[in-house]
Amino acid sequence: MLAASRGVTLKKLAERLSELSGEEYTYNSLLGKLNRESLSLKEAFFIAQILDYKLDFIDNFK
Question: pTM for the full model?
């Protein structure tokens, strides 16, 4: 949903993810990870970077 809001297809997201990470991602492999909810934290950070988002850890004990 975030990719679509930025006008980025999953195919394009997979291509950019491959460029940034140095690992091979395809539309099908990325779709599978999203469906299985098996993205690694590193992959999530790369995707956020591609889509101009930032992932933060927020202290809940403030």
Answer: 0.85
